[in-house]
Automatic annotation (TrEMBL):
Organism encoding this protein: Bacillus thermotolerans (Quasibacillus thermotolerans)
GO molecular function: RNA binding; rRNA pseudouridine synthase activity
Family: Belongs to the pseudouridine synthase RsuA family.
Keywords recorded for this protein, A-Z: Isomerase, RNA-binding
Name of the molecule in the record: Pseudouridine synthase
Pfam families: PseudoU_synth_2, S4
GO-annotated biological processes: enzyme-directed rRNA pseudouridine synthesis
Lineage: Bacteria, Bacillati, Bacillota, Bacilli, Bacillales
Transmembrane segments: none
Length: 243
């Protein structure tokens, strides 16, 4: 059961506030009867009309997408660049990405048409871990990686403790692959963290999002999340654990 104003807002007819206004003005009917009570809840089988026009109620969909580099994490781009929803030509629901990845960053994102779920994951009560693999220009010494893990000072404040692991070093090419797990989601955070210890990130991939990983997906691929995975993500965001 959802609140009437939410159903109208989710259908994209009006903002939640405008929807409330429409309800109060007597312009909304539920099963043929005018409803002016703001708290009214409706189920999927209730027929909602706004100014005589039936409200289409989309089924909620949830996708795990492996964003390639060179794609904007948005549903449209004013410069005409490729956007994540270009990879979903056969999905009719109006999906959008939760959170963002830089244009040059590849890796996992979730797309959905469920605004409430998106808010929950974008602003979880308990922070969700995201694991990145960064290729950096140079080979950071151990004490610098320890600094990264402890938290570095950025212009928007010190970063929370992170898990940091050196995966490999290429001495000939003078570069290293470092895995870093963070639970904050600041703009360009991983790139800025490495800059703070004196390294440039040349390539960045988000390899895990909570318990979800890229295994079985190539860049540009997506799959539907299972109902169980959606439930687990909700539980993680709300309680911080899967129990
Ligand atoms: N950190 C970054 O620097 N970029 C991203 O896209 C994600 C995390």
């Amino acid at each position: 059961m959802d609140r009437l104003q939410k159903v109208i807002a989710q259908a994209g007819i009006a903002s939640r506030r405008k929807a409330e206004q429409l309800i109060e003005e007597g312009k909304v009917k539920v099963n043929g009867k005018i409803v002016t009570e703001l708290g009214t809840k409706v189920s999927a089988s209730d027929k909602v009309e706004v100014e005589g026009i039936p409200v289409e109620r989309e089924r909620k969909v949830y996708y795990l997408f492996y964003k390639p580099r060179g794609v904007i994490s948005a549903v449209e781009d004013d410069k005409g660049r490729k956007v994540v929803t270009d990879y979903f030509p056969f999905v009719e629901e109006r999906i959008f990405p939760i959170g963002r990845l830089d244009y040059d960053t590849s890796g996992l994102m979730i797309l959905t048409n469920d605004g409430e779920f998106a808010n929950l994951l974008a602003h979880p009560r308990y922070k969700i871990e995201k694991t990145y693999v960064a290729r950096v220009n140079g080979i950071p010494q151990r004490h610098l990686l320890k600094r990264l893990a402890a938290g570095v000072e950025l212009e928007d404040g010190k970063t929370a403790p992170a898990k940091v692991k050196e995966l490999s070093v290429d001495k000939k090419k003078g570069r290293a692959l470092i895995e870093i797990t963070i639970h904050e989601g600041r703009n360009r955070q991983v790139r800025r963290m490495f800059e703070a210890i004196g390294f440039q990130v040349q390539k960045l991939k988000r390899e895990r999002f909570a318990f979800l990983h890229t295994k079985g997906l190539n860049a540009g691929d997506y799959r539907e999340l299972t109902a169980h995975e959606v439930k687990q993500l909700r539980t993680l965001a709300e309680t911080g654990s899967l129990r």
